[in-house]
Design brief:
By secondary structure, the protein is of the alpha/beta class. Helix content is 42%, strand content 17%. The protein has twelve helices and nine strands. Strands 1-2-5-4-3 form a five-stranded mixed beta sheet. It has a two-stranded antiparallel ribbon with strand order 6-7. The protein is globular and about 55 Å long.
């Protein structure tokens, strides 16, 4: 059995959709392993939904690989890491290319895409499967790779280890800072007509872990996006008040429809309402420890 088969079999994929998601999730870990062979994690940390899935067991699929620099650097060049990513993916027998996305003016986010042909990938991993015949010739498996080059202050990081595709280590935001980032998304993300139910799902998961919130980092995030005024000192009570107002604004039917494709247990969404989210928010805990910044 190859390494990639060993990793994919952990997911026990049954449907074609399961198989594609399993491939994406395995690729995410392979990319992390490739980056660990470079100096990338001397400069950056892993955060976001995929970090929550890989290192804290969240049970929903997350599409992107999100990173943040440890220190702001507008001149950071992510392209130096493209070849190591391609090399490690090639080493497990897959053919993917990495290409940079043009940076939006005034954006703090630098982006790239890791792309491979879906049919070729399915045939490589599942040579006896009939699924390949159902795939459009030019369909792509795509993973987005993003780096925040101007990160908010006061985040805490830690080193985590994984064993497959080979033993490696990753610098990742600690739980308190990951939770702060997610709360910022719940409060400040411009959802317009596409409410990200995934943010709410993750929010519930952090509370189930009894994770504290890195309040100082969250305050820095909210001020960076001008969500709160510079003169405000964020407190637990003030945070709960902001969240409760946000929960009153949400169309929960739209939120549920957003997250359904990413989770297996749909019944977990039945309780979703403004009353549910307000009630569980009363349990929120904050971390007021100073960082080493």
């Amino acid at each position: 059995m190859t390494i990639i088969e060993q990793m994919i079999n952990k997911y026990n994929p049954i449907t074609f959709g399961d198989k594609k998601n399993a491939i994406k999730e395995v690729l995410q870990e392979v990319v992390l392993a490739g980056l660990s062979k470079t100096d990338f994690f001397n400069h950056a940390a892993f955060y976001g939904g995929t970090a929550l899935r890989i290192f804290y067991g969240m049970d929903r699929f997350s599409e992107d690989l999100d990173f943040t620099l440890l220190v702001a650097d507008d001149d950071f060049d992510m392209r130096k890491y493209f070849k190591p990513i391609s090399d490690v993916v090639s080493s497990i027998g897959l053919n993917f290319e990495v290409s940079k996305k043009g940076k939006t003016l005034h954006s703090n986010i630098d982006s790239a895409f890791i792309k491979g042909n879906t049919k070729e990938t399915i045939i490589t991993i599942y040579p006896n499967s009939v699924d390949a015949s159902r795939i459009i010739h030019n369909e792509k498996i795509i993973i987005k790779f993003e780096i925040d080059v101007n990160p908010p202050l006061y985040a805490k990081t830690e080193i985590k280890f994984r064993l497959l595709p080979f033993p490696y280590q990753v610098r990742v935001y600690d739980k308190t800072s990951l939770f702060a980032g997610k709360i910022h998304a719940v409060i400040a993300r411009s959802w317009k007509n596409r409410i990200k139910g995934r943010d709410l799902y993750d929010y519930v998961y952090y509370l189930s872990l009894e994770a504290k919130v890195n309040l100082k980092h969250l305050e820095a995030r909210l001020k960076q996006t001008k969500t709160i005024d510079e003169n405000i000192k964020l407190s637990k009570d003030f945070l709960i008040n902001i969240l409760e107002k946000r929960f009153d604004e949400i169309d929960y039917d739209i939120a549920k429809s957003d997250v359904r494709p990413f989770i297996k247990d749909q019944a977990t969404l039945d309780l979703w309402s403004n009353n549910f989210f307000k009630s569980i928010t009363e349990q929120i805990k904050v971390d007021l420890e100073e960082t080493n910044d």
